[in-house]
Amino acid sequence: MEKQNKDLNRRQFLKSSAIAVSALAAVGAGVGYLQKVTAETRINRNFLRPPGAIDEDTFIYGCIKCGLCVQICPIQAIKLAGIKEGLAYGTPYINVREQACDFSCDSLQCVETCPTAVLYFKQFKDAGEKAVEEYVKTHKTDENFNPFPVQIKAMKSIVKMGIAKLNPETCLAYQGKGFKGTPRGKDFKGVNRSPYTNDAKATPVAEKYYDEKICDICVKECPIGDTAIVMTDIGGKTVPKVLDGCTGCGVCVMVCPTEGPSIIVEPIKS
Ligand code: SF4
Ligand code: SF4
Ligand code: SF4
């Protein structure tokens, strides 16, 4: 009987030890996973955040993942990061190749609606108001003056999501080539409000048709215009050149007709 009890105690001890070891291993694996996820998230600065995003480390912790910016965007440019993104899970980002921000909302609505100010609106509000003040001082205005176009132009001009970068190896203009057709094919789902055809609202890229002797679609469709990107002569070729006024909105990336885009947006790594 005494031997039986001893065996039982020994078995229970071994069983408890095994459970404890497994539990410790599980905790260790969990901590390891969290460390890995944290480390990966810390170095993953490739998300292109919506306009007005504060620095990435603070953004990840400050965003409450409410999705209001997603809901308000009229062209569904903003998506929420999936669970594989670790700490960035649920935070908003823009995949500009699929749907760029073309400023269709006209007033940076995603930024204005953000309840935590990780998309920080005051800078845009101040810039808009200052531009209107300057305009009124330097132009003759009457009671019919609509300040909105001046205001939104100034607000858009200080957006800095990233900066566009060209790949001369694949850009059609750099090869002296044109483009005829629909840049992303008939099944492409993205939309944009074209400054070049003066669209009143965003329309499907799949319905747009170009016939360019030298490809300049990125330049034509840029919602910021000639402070952001221009066609210029370099080494006897007419090619696009990105300027400091580029906001990183990514419309140029979305409409570029080459299979891998010949222009990309590098996110601001602040
Ligand atoms: S600024 Fe761009 S991303 Fe934000 S709501 Fe407007 S169109 Fe959408
Ligand atoms: S749209 Fe693409 S291929 Fe055409 S000029 Fe711009 S970067 Fe080059
Ligand atoms: S060049 Fe124009 S379209 Fe391209 S990211 Fe810059 S502002 Fe946007």
Give your account of this protein's structure:
- The chain is of the alpha+beta class and 270 residues long.
- The protein folds into two domains: 56-157, no CATH class; 162-267, no CATH class.
- The protein contains eight helices and ten strands.
- The chain has helices at residues 2-43, 56-62, 68-72, 109-113, 122-138, 148-157, 217-221, 251-255, and strands spanning 78-80, 92-94, 162-166, 179-181, 191-192, 203-204, 210-212, 229-234, 237-242, 263-267.
- A two-stranded antiparallel ribbon has the order 1-2. A two-stranded antiparallel ribbon has the order 3-10.
- Helix 5 packs across helix 6.
- It is globular.
- The model has no long low-confidence stretch (mean pLDDT 88).
- It binds iron/sulfur cluster (3 copies).
- One iron/sulfur cluster binds at residues 50-51, 72-73, 75, 77-78, 101, 103-105, 108-110.
Present the secondary structure layout.
Elements: H1 2-43, H2 56-62, H3 68-72, E1 78-80, E2 92-94, H4 109-113, H5 122-138, H6 148-157, E3 162-166, E4 179-181, E5 191-192, E6 203-204, E7 210-212, H7 217-221, E8 229-234, E9 237-242, H8 251-255, E10 263-267
Antiparallel strand pairs: 1-2, 3-10, 4-7, 5-6, 8-9
